[in-house]
Amino acid sequence: MLIGEVARRSGVSARMLRHYESLGLVRPTGRTDAGYRAYSGEDIRRIFHIESLRSLGLSLREVGRALDDPGFRPSELVDDLVHRTRERIASETELLTRLRRIGAAEPAGWEDVLQIVGLLQALGSKSAGTRQRAALSSAEEAAWPVEALVEAALSETDPNVAGALRWALAQSGEGGSALLAEGLGSPVAAVRKRAVQSLVEMPDGEATALLRDALAHPDIVVRRYAALALGARGVADAVPTLIDMVVEEANDVDAADALGALASDPASADRIAARLVDCLAHGTAEPSARRRLTQALADIPGPTASRALADLAQDEDRVVALTATYILGIRDAR
Q: Quick one: residue 21, left, alpha or beta (phi over 0 = left, psi -120 to 50 = alpha)?
């Protein structure tokens, strides 16, 4: 079969067939009377073998070795191909992610594209200082690559850089809260913590709704951060978690402050006081916990808290009694 016919049947151009011949990969076994190359059936099968191996990503040199070396072990080459393919996929995925982020920022011109590329490169720098400057400068750009900021915030271990990233996200407008909420589902506890810490600083209503949902999160750290933030935002749903924090001595001072802020409304004050009293009566027998609950009543106004403190002034626990008496003295002096 002549080279032109082989090219038509195999899909390999005549030029490439000649290249294969120059490399010694496949040589036509015959010549016509006129001196033209003549390929046998075995030659054509070899051509298809070459194309099959090339489709796996082998170089022509590797193809020749695979076909001609009797000692060739395909498993080693396949393992190497798997490794190279994974690296290529990772590289292509990184490029795709970068392109998607650039597109999401809706650059108006190439100058904007170059600025965004520079920012993305800086956020991925090994230098903490470079990452921090990139986070702080991102708020000055016309369009923020929110996805990149969220990814950086969820992976950042340096506290100063993490703070700058959270601030940048808080300035970024819509979109960041929902992306951060996805981080709450991470199997890595540190990522969940960074996600809720960042969500706490988001000022929008969507963040408040997501934090309210986070009160039911299985991760206690997430629940506690959400409760503190919601207490500061006046969301009464946080009260049970805040009281648990007081009992468990987990950021108990901040939790008590949040309860005090929620108690600024008279109706809320009585409900919070009633919960604290119930916890004192039935929730725990641990002396240190009862003392913290008594201290928490100090910032709760209203008659329910005052009556509870009067009862606690007669408590068998001398520290509880003295604490309640002291608080009542301050309240009477106001």
A: alpha
DSSP class of residue 143 equals S
Three-state secondary-structure class, residue 170: helix
Number of Cβ atoms within 10 Å of the Cβ of 334: 5
Ranges of each domain in the chain: 3-72, 235-334
CA distance 164 to 161: 5
CA 198 to chain centre: 11
Going by CATH, does the domain composed of 3-72 fall within 1.10.1660.10?
yes
Q: CA dihedral defined by 12, 13, 15, 17, rounded to 10 degrees? A: 30
* Per-residue pLDDT tens digits for 21-70: 888 888 888 888 778 888 888 888 889 988 888 888 888 888 888 888 87
Query: For the residues 309-323, what does the mean pLDDT come to?
Result: 92
Distance in angstroms (rounded) separating the CA atoms of residues 27 and 32: 14
The number of angstroms, rounded, from the C-alpha of 84 to the middle of its chain's C-alpha atoms is 27
Predicted pLDDT at 142: 47
pTM: 0.69
The amino acid sitting at 63 is V
